[in-house]
Structure formats: structure tokens, C-alpha cells
Design a protein that fits this description.
- By secondary structure, the chain is α+β, with helices and mostly antiparallel strands.
- The protein has 2 domains: 259 residues, Alpha-Beta Complex (Creatine Amidinohydrolase); 64 residues, Arc Repressor Mutant, subunit A (Orthogonal Bundle), CATH 1.10.10.10.
- 34% of the residues lie in helices and 21% in strands.
- The strands form 5 sheets. Strands 1, 8, 9, 10, 11, 17 and 18 form a 7-stranded antiparallel sheet that branches.
- The protein is globular and about 65 Å long.
- It comes from Pseudovirgaria hyperparasitica.
């Protein structure tokens, strides 16, 4: 075997060094690739709890579309057998979308209002309170109402009422309102939520001084009396008598003066129709001769108002609430601003009530002249604030009840009221 020359050894060393460098380089490239290799993103788990403030879709929290039921109450007397009646049970299952929409709207209402009750504090402006409630509702149903027709699919059933002291109903802040909630105020918070035109109408009253506790207790008790007695074949005038008796059993001492609690006679509960908050039947808060009966399939907003004043309201103050009339007259609109505004109203709200802030959200400007013209022509109905005697205090509680074939379902009932 021939001996290796120094030249051979040198060439071998160079070859090994070159090969080694290549391996080092390849290892470095492989290491970098390993470091930069993208990991597959983990699938996000579906949210199982609501955020604060509310932002998770109700449909996400209940992914199979089985939304919580309201409070189911058996009918009484002659209607007691409805829950086991096969025909009635069959009728109850004919329209599952009806119950699904209503329960989704009701759960949205519960979550938003319970958050509002915990977070509303004196010092906040009414505009801030209204916007936070309405934005939460829109997030939870997944419709922000900013694109044409979106608010008709789901969202606000009517403008949020923030009615202070002697104002009982129909006040919502217009753009530019800087009024703040005071610790001495009694505020009625009236919220409407709809899904596919199924409107849940429910309200509560807030105060920050125990001096008003009896006023609130009287109205809550009266509303619960109305809910307890409501049912298929109940006559509306008779139901008003039960409500009146309960409310008038209370009195309230405010600043050393004792006031009897009076039901407000000229604001009533009402039945609710698809896309129409005010139906054809009224539920009074006092006994009347109205012999109209509640019927199977009816949806009612049982709401009662109590007052330390006259127990009768008048329209007074700047208007915020409006709605397109269900059967408006044919009118020759000469104002171009009225024509264009009417188109916006029809496409974005239909027959659902709305307020001026909603027009501002849609980018409408200088619309008051056109709006007033539509009201004057009878095409749009205005709903000014309803106000009792100056210096008086009013309270409101309200729930929506479905008179199903088998049971009465207080759809908006919650742990709060």
C-alpha cells in the first residue's frame, strides 16, 4: 500500500472542511425553518359567558337556537286543562320560529337591562345612557342598523325611554341633549327589543333615594297583579280593576308629605302585533266597562304607571318619538326633504317606532322641516313626552306576556323583576 503524500493529506483536509461547512450551513437553514414554521392557529372556543359591557351575540351563547323560556304560568279555572290538552299542545308547536324569535329578543332584553341596572349612575348624561343600552342591544342581536333595512331584521323595538320624575313616558334624548341623571331623580327605563318584528316591551324604574321605595313598590306590585290575573277570556276592564285596587293600597312619604299612589289613567298597556308596538287592545290601570277579552295567541305588554300627582298625563316638551302610520293617507309631498326622509324611514324602520337620534346615526341632516311636514300630512305620527303634574313623581314597571295555547309565558321575566 502506497504511503500518503503531504499533498494528499492537505486535499483531504480541505475537502472535509468544505463538507463540514456545508453541513453546518444546512443545519442552520433547517433550524431557522423550524423556528419560523407557522403553527396552526387553535380554534377559538365559542364564548359561553357574556362580557361587560354586553358584546357577545345571544345566538353564540345559545348556538342551537334554544333560548331560555320566560316564566310559564298555568291558566286558571276553565282554562286549567289547556296544558294537557293534546289539541292545544299541537297548536303550541305549530310555529317554532315565533317562540324562538321572542325568546331571543327577551334574553337580549334581560342581559342588557341587568347590565344597565348595575352600571347606570348619577352624573351620566341621558344620551350616554341611551346610547349604551341601544348599542348593547344591537351588538347582541348582530344588527347595527347602519345599512339599509338592517334595523328591520332585528334591533331596537322602539327608542329607549329615559323618563325623569313627572315625565311618565315617551322621552328619549335628542342629539345635543346634555342633561345628566341626578341622585334625586326617579327614572323610568323603557326598552324595546325585536327579532324579526317580534317585539319584547319591558320597563323598570330606578331611584337612588329610599324615600321613593314605596312608589316603586306600588307600581311593581300592580304590574305583577296584572300579570297574575291576565289570561285567556279575561276582560280588559275587569283586569284594570285588579291593577287599580293593588296600586291604590299604597302611599308614599316624600319630604315629609304623604301622597296616595294613583294609577295613571290615560296610559295603558296594550297588545303587540308583528312590527307594531301598539295593537288594537288596551289594558287599563283602572276599572272600566271594556268587555273586550284577552284571547289565545295574543301578546300583551302589561305596564302600569303610578303617580304622586294627578294620575293623568298631558303631552308636553320636545318630541323625540315617531312612527310611520300603518295606513298613511295619500299625500302629494311637495317638499323634496320630506320625500327623501320618507324613503329613509320606510327602508330603515318600516312601522317600528324610531327617534331623531336614529336619523342622525344614519347620517341624515337638516331633516326637521321634512319631518314636521310628514307629521302634518298624517304620514308620520309624533309621540311627545307624557307628563303629569309639575313636581310629581311617576314610576313604571312592565313585562311582555304571551298567551300561548297551553300556558301563559311572561317572556321578559328575569331575576331582577
Amino acid at each position: 500500500m502506497a504511503a500518503k503524500s503531504p499533498v494528499d493529506d492537505l486535499q483531504k483536509m480541505k475537502h472535509e472542511q468544505k463538507t463540514g461547512n456545508i453541513h453546518v450551513a444546512l443545519n442552520e437553514v433547517a433550524a431557522k425553518r423550524k423556528k419560523t414554521k407557522k403553527k396552526k392557529p387553535k380554534k377559538k372556543k365559542a364564548a359561553t359567558a357574556q362580557t361587560d359591557p354586553p358584546s357577545v351575540l345571544i345566538s353564540t351563547l345559545f348556538p342551537h337556537g334554544t333560548y331560555p323560556k320566560g316564566e310559564e304560568v298555568e291558566y286558571k279555572d276553565d282554562n286549567l286543562n289547556r296544558i294537557t290538552n293534546e289539541e292545544k299542545r299541537h297548536l303550541d308547536n305549530l310555529d317554532p320560529a315565533f317562540l324562538s324569535d321572542y325568546r331571543q329578543a327577551a334574553e337580549t332584553h334581560r342581559q342588557v337591562r341587568q347590565w344597565a341596572q348595575k352600571n347606570i349612575k348619577p352624573g351620566q348624561t341621558l344620551t350616554e345612557i341611551a346610547n349604551s343600552i341601544e348599542d348593547s342591544v344591537r351588538r347582541l342581536v348582530g344588527h347595527d342598523g347602519l345599512t339599509e333595512g338592517d334595523a328591520i331584521k332585528a334591533g331596537m323595538g322602539f327608542p329607549t325611554g329615559l323618563n325623569l320624575d313627572d315625565i311618565a313616558a315617551h322621552y328619549s334624548p335628542n342629539v345635543g341633549c346634555k342633561q345628566a341623571l341626578a341622585a334625586t331623580n326617579v327614572m323610568k327605563v323603557d326598552i324595546g327589543v325585536h327579532v324579526n318584528g317580534r317585539i319584547v316591551d319591558s320597563a323598570f324604574t330606578m331611584s337612588f333615594d329610599p324615600m321613593y321605595d314605596n312608589l316603586l313598590a306600588a307600581v311593581k306590585d300592580a304590574t305583577n297583579t296584572g300579570l297574575r290575573e291576565a289570561g285567556i277570556d279575561m276582560r280588559l276592564g275587569e283586569l284594570g280593576g285588579y291593577i287599580q285596587e293593588t296600586m291604590e293600597s299604597y302611599e308614599c312619604e316624600i319630604n315629609g308629605v304623604t301622597y296616595p299612589i294613583k294609577p295613571i289613567r290615560n296610559i295603558t298597556g296594550h297588545n303587540i302585533l308583528p312590527y307594531s308596538i301598539q295593537g288594537t287592545k288596551s289594558v287599563p290601570s283602572v276599572k272600566t266597562n271594556d268587555m273586550t277579552k284577552m284571547e289565545e295567541g295574543d301578546v300583551f305588554a302589561i305596564e302600569t304607571f303610578g303617580s304622586t300627582g294627578n294620575g293623568r298625563c298631558v303631552e308636553r316638551g320636545e318630541c323625540s318619538h315617531y312612527a310611520l302610520c300603518g295606513d298613511p293617507p295619500q299625500a302629494d309631498l311637495r317638499l323634496s326633504s320630506a320625500k327623501s326622509l320618507l324613503s329613509v324611514i320606510k327602508k330603515n324602520f318600516g312601522t317600528l317606532p324610531w327617534c331623531r337620534r336614529y336619523l342622525d346615526r344614519l347620517g341624515q341632516e337638516k331633516y326637521l322641516l321634512g319631518l314636521n311636514n310628514l307629521v302634518k300630512q298624517g304620514i308620520v305620527q309624533d309621540y311627545p313626552p307624557l307628563v303629569d303634574k309639575k313636581g310629581s313623581y311617576t314610576a313604571q314597571f312592565e313585562h311582555t306576556v304571551l298567551l300561548r295555547p297551553t300556558v301563559k309565558e311572561i317572556i321578559s321575566r328575569g331575576d331582577d323583576y
